[in-house]
Amino acid sequence: MKIVHTIKDLQVLLSKLKIQGKKVGLVPTMGALHAGHASLVKRCVAENDAAVVSVFVNPTQFNDKNDLEKYPRTLDADCLLLESCGAMYVFAPSVREMYPEEDMRTFSYPPLDTVMEGIYRPGHFNGVCQIVSKLFNAVQPDRAYFGEKDFQQLAIIREMVRQIKYPIEIVGCPIVREADGLALSSRNARLSFEERKNALKISQALFESRTFATLHTVSETQKLVEGAIADAPGLRLEYFEIVDGNTLQNIADWTMSGYVVGCITVFCGEVRLIDNVRYK
Ligand code: PAF
After folding, report:
1. In angstroms, rounded to a whole number, what is the distance separating the alpha carbons of residues 46 and 127?
2. Which one of 134, 153, 207, 211 has the fewest beta carbons within 10 angstroms of its own beta carbon?
């Protein structure tokens, strides 16, 4: 495995593979890697001739400076994990390498980016699209891998790829959970023992709602989850929305869509956690 810091060096290495007709897969990450990332990388390794993993804490997608500063940076540990997963290249650029000048491009994909995270984190998806498009331009992968935990992000990236016509297959990968159900996240490392216990209520409420939904309306299911989080100690609900999985618009009735997902964001102490569950 090789660690590369500049776009130029990466492109020299990748051009040799591409000339031979090799397929290149990309897993974009912000580091602080865990088993969820490992599952993306292993799938990328299995489905391509070469797996490139980018590790870059992208400043343009943070609307909270404090959050950006606190974001864990663990490149050495990340590289050990990536080597064990079979990655060929780790692309770990500097901020200056990715943003030699301010990125003035704007990416807007309504209605996908005007709901949920789009309301609570203004500018976030614009920053995500800025960096992901830069990574796509630099690597020109055949496939790129994203986790379904960031459900809205995945929908927006698919839409960006569709509109810009990038010749890249976007592969969404299932959420990886701890044995007790908590969705893996780099932010879990910031939870205290007590908060970790409280956070478990999030996935429990979602799983319970899946069974509940088979016999109840959308609005009853919504209330069940909202009530469960309101009753749980140490949790504060930001939103829980039951949406069509393609348009991300609320559904009023289960018959309105054949692809329905419940998306939730909850503060556990200071830590903002997201999760989702598929109803059908
Ligand atoms: O999901 C993430 O970790 C980030 O949003 C991504 C896609 C790597 C862009 O910085």
Report:
1. 29
2. 211
Q: 9 in helix, strand or coil? A: helix
State if residue 32 touches ligand 1 by the CB under 6 angstroms criterion: no
30 lines ligand 1 (CB under 6 A): yes
For residue 37, indicate whether it is catalytic. Answer: yes
Whether 27 is in the pocket of ligand 1, judged by its Cβ within 6 Å, is no
13: amino acid identity, one letter: L
- Annotated active-site residue in 5, 37, 124, 216: 37
Cα separation, 224 vs 217, in Å, equals 11
Report if pTM > 0.70.
yes
Atom 5 in ligand 1: residue holding the nearest Cα: 128
Residue ranges per structural domain of the chain: 2-173, 186-278
**What number does CATH give the domain 186-278?**
3.30.1300.10
Angle at CA of residue 6, ends 26 and 132, nearest 5°? 40
- Residue pLDDT, tens place only, 41-53: 999 999 999 999 9
